[in-house]
């Protein structure tokens, strides 16, 4: 198995200087201060966090793509595990305020939408709504378990993840990405945001857009953080914006944004050792 940088482990202090692959893991958030909109940060593995507000980021992206909303260059929303109204009453109001029509070209929903009103809302945000079946989408038997979409030079695989065993396992995800022959694999099911690069492929879990509890194990005192991702795709380069609704010590909710990048490696894979 190829070198896997820091998945579910604390990232060493030398990693940003020595590693070429991008890793964003939950352990990173514990180790480093949160990068809030308006803050600055030194150079990361593949990108620099911009001191932009949430609205500034969206405004810049929309302006960039006003005349380029095509399959080769457009904004793609990645969202999933909403569980409305079973585990959450609605999308967070601050998220709804951001997700307005005319800004996003396509939505990739990773399953467990479970609510017609939210489906209609997402279709208003972007008529091109691509969905896969989650483990609780029992009323949608015709949804596929996985699909592949093409954007520019990137093949993107979409799956909920409940068919990947063990759930969220890096090796199992890599096998799925190989089987689907994709550069990027989007998966859900764990309700935790996670992203990492492994053997030249990029893996992204957007988490739960509503912060719905999952049936898996959660440590005492830890709760899901509502999150979704926005992908800005230009050729073989993906810039990922991660939106998280965080609550401060005073109980005030604010949307934080992280920006990271992935570039497809066109170099041929090394031949296996004999």
From TrEMBL:
CDD domains with a match to the protein in the record: MPP_Vps29
InterPro entries referenced in this protein's UniProt entry, alphabetically: Calcineurin-like_PHP_lpxH, Metallo-depent_PP-like, Phosphodiesterase_MJ0936/Vps29, Vps29
A Gene Ontology cellular-component term: cytosol
Classification via Pfam families: Metallophos_2
GO biological process entries: protein transport; retrograde transport, endosome to Golgi
Highest taxon, organism lineage: Eukaryota
Keywords: Protein transport, Transport
The Calcineurin-like phosphoesterase domain, residue ranges: 77-234
Record-stated family: Belongs to the VPS29 family.
Listed name of the protein: Vacuolar protein sorting-associated protein 29
Organism of origin: Penicillium diatomitis
């Amino acid at each position: 198995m190829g070198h896997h940088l820091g998945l579910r482990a604390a990232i060493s202090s030398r990693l940003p200087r020595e590693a070429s692959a991008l890793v964003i893991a939950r352990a990173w958030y514990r180790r480093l201060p949160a990068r809030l909109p308006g803050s600055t940060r030194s150079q990361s593995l593949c990108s620099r966090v911009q001191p932009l507000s949430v609205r500034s980021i969206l405004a810049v992206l929309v302006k960039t793509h006003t005349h380029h909303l095509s399959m080769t260059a457009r904004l793609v929303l990645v969202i999933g595990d909403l569980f409305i109204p079973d585990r959450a009453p609605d999308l967070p109001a601050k998220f709804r305020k951001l997700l307005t029509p005319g800004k996003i070209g396509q939505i990739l929903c990773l399953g467990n939408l479970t609510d017609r009103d939210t489906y209609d809302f997402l279709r208003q945000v972007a008529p091109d709504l691509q969905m896969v079946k989650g483990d609780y989408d029992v009323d949608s038997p015709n949804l596929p378990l996985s699909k592949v979409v093409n954007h520019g030079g990137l093949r993107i695989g979409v799956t909920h993840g409940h068919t990947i065993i063990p759930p969220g396992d890096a090796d199992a995800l890599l096998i799925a990405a190989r089987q689907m022959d994709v550069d990027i694999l989007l998966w859900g099911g764990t309700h935790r945001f996670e992203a990492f690069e492994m053997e030249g492929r990029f893996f992204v879990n957007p988490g739960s857009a509503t912060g719905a509890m999952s049936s898996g194990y959660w440590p005492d005192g830890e709760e899901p953080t509502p999150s979704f991702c926005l992908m800005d795709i230009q050729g073989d380069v993906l810039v990922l914006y991660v939106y998280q609704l965080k609550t401060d010590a005073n109980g005030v909710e604010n949307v934080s944004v992280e920006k990271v990048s992935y570039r497809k490696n066109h170099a041929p894979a090394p031949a296996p050792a004999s």
